[in-house]
Specification:
alpha/beta; Rossmann fold; UDP-galactose 4-epimerase, domain 1; 7-stranded parallel sheet; binds nicotinamide-adenine-dinucleotide
């Protein structure tokens, strides 16, 4: 099997590309390094190819998709904050870029496209756990563009019979997740702890999140691709939730503690609780998250320590934003 992974130089895409290569697939990555890293590519594999380009560029997408059976579409302008800062860029990449990828997939006769969506499409949460039929009412440009990405992809399924699976990720964490201005709570906490800086929890810390390990997310993509005839939207979380206070306690247990925890006022717009109902993905393509949070956190801390200890020249090459821009956010 041959797959195109758009956004494969990024956090989730690089973990997926590795899994596909391990499974014997041929993999082509298309990425423009907006938030991805050359170090995440696999130049030493004979089954790996790379096209440096933009998903909005028909020629680049056409070159990358040639001969592919499956497309994993992960390239995106990622995150609420980035979309609020640059809403037009968010819409251009996430909506127009996705249509460009769909057009190329149709022209190339691709069997299936697996689209990375987000729990951000739900907006304010009304029920727990969150099933796929929970109302969608996004409250950021990012949530809106990810919802549009889903809708237009599913329209291609109806119009052209292209198999389309949209995976709505909850809070993903794991190796290759950098600490940057748009980062998630786990990298922000982890790198603060490693630097000996205090961590800030917004609110009372009793808010809960569904953290899912990136290897489970990569596996969800693989299973969804292999499930012939399956199309639609699916929640991808761990199916469990943990409070931010318990996350801090877990980090203390792993690191031996010794870091300061500051409690700040709650942040406007943060949801109180989050928990994915993953039964649809379980039933449709045997999605079975298997990484326990403590195991995944231990692995992540080990990765983050290696990253933090890398030579300054390598860290500079990795830095997309200066740390002074980084929020001490407890939730994304
Ligand atoms: N990380 C999470 O918790 C999370 C949660 C929900 C959804 N998602 C979705 O998962 C996908 C992957 O996210 P991630 O966390 O790995 O982010 P990431 O920023 O690490 O990866 C995105 C990749 O897309 C590339 N890219 C961006 N614009 C591009 C363009 N115009 N052309 C080509 N490449 C481009 C970036 O360079 C980067 O390598 C995204 O679609 C995101 O919306 C992530």
């Amino acid at each position: 099997m041959k797959a195109l992974v758009t956004g494969g130089a990024g956090f989730i895409g690089s973990n997926l590309a590795r899994l596909l290569l391990d499974q014997g697939w041929e993999v082509v990555v298309l990425d423009n390094f907006l938030s991805g890293y050359r170090q995440n590519l696999f130049p030493n594999s004979s089954r790996f190819g790379f096209v440096e380009g933009d998903i909005r560029d028909a020629a680049a997408v056409g070159q990358a998709i040639a001969g592919c059976d499956i497309v994993f579409h992960l390239a995106a302008s990622v995150g609420n904050k980035r979309s609020i800062d640059r809403p037009l860029v968010d819409a251009e990449i996430n909506i127009l870029g996705t249509i460009q990828v769909l057009e190329a997939a149709r022209a190339a006769g691709v069997r299936k496209i697996v689209v990375s969506s987000s729990a951000g499409i739900f907006g304010e949460l009304k029920t727990l756990p969150i099933a796929e039929d929970h109302p969608v009412d996004p409250d950021t440009p990012y949530g809106v563009s990810k919802l549009a990405e889903e809708k237009v992809s599913l329209a291609y399924h109806k119009l052209y019979g292209l198999e389309v699976v949209c995976l709505r990720y909850f809070n993903v964490y794991g190796p290759n997740q950098r600490f940057d201005a748009y980062g998630n709570v786990i990298p922000i906490f982890a790198f603060s702890v490693i630097k000996g800086a205090p961590i800030t929890v917004f609110g009372d810390g009793e808010q809960t999140r569904d953290f899912v390990n990136v290897s489970d997310v990569a596996r969800a993509n693989l299973n969804a691709a292999q499930a012939k005839g399956v199309s639609g939207s699916f929640n991808i979380g761990s199916g469990t939730r943990i409070s931010i206070n318990k996350l801090v306690a877990a980090l203390k247990a792993i690191t031996g503690g010794g870091f300061e925890v500051i409690y700040g006022p709650p942040r406007a717009g943060d949801v109180r609780d989050s928990l994915a109902d993953i039964s649809r993905a379980r039933e449709s393509f045997a999605y079975t998250p298997s990484v326990e949070l403590m195991v995944g956190l231990n692995e992540y801390m080990a990765w983050a320590r290696t990253k933090a200890a890398a030579p300054a020249s390598e860290q500079d090459a990795d830095a997309k934003v200066s740390c002074s821009e980084c929020p001490t956010t407890a939730t994304r």
